[in-house]
Amino acid sequence: MELASGTKIHQKICNITKLSSSIGLFIGPFFSPLIYDSENVSQLIKSENHMQEKATQYKFIRSLVDRSILIDSGLSYRESKRILLDAVSHANLKEYLISFNSNTRNLVDDLSSKVGGTEFNLEIDLSFCIISILIDTIMGLDASIMTRDEIILFAKELDNSLNYISSRIHRAWLYPDFLYKFSNLFKLSNQSRMYLRNFCGKLIAAREKKFQSSNQKGVKTARTVFIDKYFVSKRDDGSEFSIDNITDDVLSLIGAGFDTTVISLGFVIIMLAINQDVQKKVFQEITEKLKGNNRYLDTKDLNELHYLDQVIYETWRLYPPLPVLGRLATKDIDLANGGYLEKGTNLWIFVMKLHRDPTFYPDPDRFNPENFLPERVKERPSEVYMPFGFGTRKCFGNIFAKLVIKTILCHLLRNYQFHTTKTEEDFQLALEVTLKNKSGIPVSIVSRENIEIS
């Protein structure tokens, strides 16, 4: 089966996987097995040491960044991971909550003009909020350093860049660089790359100036700022990080953090708008556990919201941010069904299908947060749930994303009730680098100001 683009890919793969327990497909010129049965997935996880390399197609991310923890291995990967993991450490995440709260309050205020109005696409407002959070937490800068229009354009260009990468993956004739450079896709991709890198360059310059000024005055920063690590650390070979190195890592972190968080939040909110009974139950939990309508939330507050966790996990089950995971077999790998994968095979795990296995998830297409009651989770093997990947190459930003999502949802749901005229059948799902809903986040909102919170 040869693939074309976005929504068609999702439709074709979902249709054909209903007919067979395993399939092979052409992704560009490469014939690749698509694996989604739990036994073979479990076997692959056991062979993780032979799948440390990402699938060949991920190299197209280099049209945006020359180096990236998302696709690199070896020295470059270790250097980036060392600094990036510190950015999402538990201690730093606690500090970030101030930013999560303040920027979400701004979002609540921005949405007040839409109360009682018609249905609108929430995606732009969420994008502005999340980019503002990332500028604050990653760069240590107030988002007001950029205008709202600049931030929204940045978010749009991030989305465009990922679309361009996906488009190239789906077009075999654009795999050779010498052909790709003559295409309109190359021109569009370069335009986005230049805008995004210039945007990040301005942020880096502003933070470095602030960092140097604080050092000269002997002022200690109130909290740890991720980007400052690059100004005082050296690479493993003893050299300093270049501006291109720093830009690559900043763009990788902001890009990944933005995309997965907006996607996840969008799906959770639309699912709550569709399932009013679940939204009511989440609201009840928030009002019972959190005292005070407008106070800032801390990690203790968020850790008390167990049903909200179930809702988020169930949304990730049905609509995982990473719907397919591509790896390159660096050695022969035996499969559970008696087959094997040869060294050099590009293999893909179809997470969306794995997450809808009726053996582990009864009535698997139904939105049911009770799938993540503690006793039910214990009954399932861990490898049948991997919304952010698995093993050492698992997306390291999942804890960051979860805290952002919970903070934003708490503030939004304490102030507004969400409604929609859409159903899941209206979703226009597209399998790209991440899972996209091309229909956006169409909702209307009602104020909860008359609801007392005790």
TrEMBL record:
Its main location: endoplasmic reticulum. May be involved in the metabolism of insect hormones and in the breakdown of synthetic insecticides. This is Cytochrome P450. GO terms for cellular component: endoplasmic reticulum membrane. Gene3D superfamilies: Cytochrome P450. Belongs to the cytochrome P450 family. GO terms for molecular function: metal ion binding; monooxygenase activity. Keywords: Endoplasmic reticulum, Heme, Iron, Membrane, Metal-binding, Microsome, Monooxygenase, Oxidoreductase.
